[in-house]
Every structure is written in C-alpha cells, then in structure tokens.
Write a structure and sequence with these properties.
Layout lengths: L16 H8 L4 H8 L6 E3 L6 H7 L7 H5 L2 E7 L1 E6 L6 E4 L6 E7 L4 H10 L3 E11 L5 E11 L6 E2 L8 H5 L1
Parallel strand pairs: 1-7
Antiparallel strand pairs: 1-5, 2-5, 2-6, 3-4, 3-8, 6-7
C-alpha cells in the first residue's frame, strides 16, 4: 500500500492528522459557490498555515479545534506565482511570476470570520493580503476557479532564496 501523499511526497505517518484530513477534502460545485459567498474571501495558504494546527496557533486559540478548520479546507493551486524560501526563516514567501508554468500548491480555507482574518493579518505582517484566483478540484474531479486572498511577500527580494536553491515543504517545516 502506498502511504505517500501526492501533494507533498511525504509518508502519511509523518504528517499531522488534521492536515491529512484537509488534503482529502473535496467539495461539490454547489457547496463551493455557497462557501465563496461568505463575507470573508477564502484564504489560500502555501506555507505553515496549510497545517490546521498552525492556524489555531496563529489565531491565539490554543484550545481551538484544528479539525474544525480542516473540515473547511481543500487543496488548491495558485497559477503564475512562485514560492521562495526566506533566508534564516522556516516559512516561505510567494511572489507573482510572469511564467504561466509557475504554480504554487497550497490549501484553501473557507469560512473565516472578519476577526480571524484581522488576526491573521497581524500574524502575517511581513506580507500583504492580495486577491487572486486559485484552482480547486471538485468531488467529481472537475476543476473550478475561485477568488481567494493570499499573503504576498512585501519585504523585498534580497532575503528570498529561489526554488532551484531551496525547496520549502511542510516536511522541512515540521522537522
């Protein structure tokens, strides 16, 4: 039995259960339309916030239920963007790219409150929240484009490490 996840190449035993649950989530087109209608746009996460337990920590809710977040997450792809490592830090950055072939795999979170979004803005203070389009796979295998917000690095490129030199991954963050 193959115990690796396609999104990360990791063995299942190495990854938090709430993250594995989120990786398996797929929504119907109808469900996605309802979720997108929320007052707060979905958030696309590409670094440590792909882990539901990190979202709980970032929101300062140590007793929060990471599975409640995992239930509202699904894998997504951000096109025409590139993920970078940041020199001296354990989390990545994303910047827009001119190349159509550049993509960033991540997780899309639905159903945040305005207060949670404001808390994440403080947590992600080195980034600017930006409206983008991401692609998600539906339960029937079809793909749908969804408007979402992503935190784009705003501190300049001098500290960024190109993917060719360093690949950021959930596994490297967890180790």
């Amino acid at each position: 039995m193959d115990t690796t996840t396609e999104a990360t190449g990791s063995t299942i035993a190495e990854l938090p259960r709430s993250y594995l649950q989120a990786l398996q989530n797929r929504f119907t087109a109808h469900d996605l339309i309802v979720l997108v209608a929320s007052p707060v746009k979905p958030a696309f996460f590409y670094g440590s916030l792909m882990l539901p337990e990190t979202i709980v920590d970032a929101l300062g809710d140590g007793d929060g239920d990471e599975y409640a977040f995992a239930d509202r997450m699904t894998p997504a792809v951000l096109h025409k963007h590139q993920r970078f490592g940041i020199h001296g830090l354990s989390y990545p950055a994303v910047l827009p790219s001119q190349r159509d072939t550049d993509t960033v795999l991540g997780m899309l979170l639905f159903g945040m409150t305005v207060a949670q979004q404001e808390e994440l803005d403080l947590y992600e203070s080195q980034y600017e929240r930006t409206l983008v389009q991401v692609e998600v796979e539906l339960v029937d295998g079809e793909r749908m484009i969804v408007a979402a917000e992503v935190y784009i690095w705003k501190r300049g490129v001098e500290r960024l490490i190109a993917l060719e030199q360093l690949v950021w991954s959930i596994e490297s963050y967890l180790s």
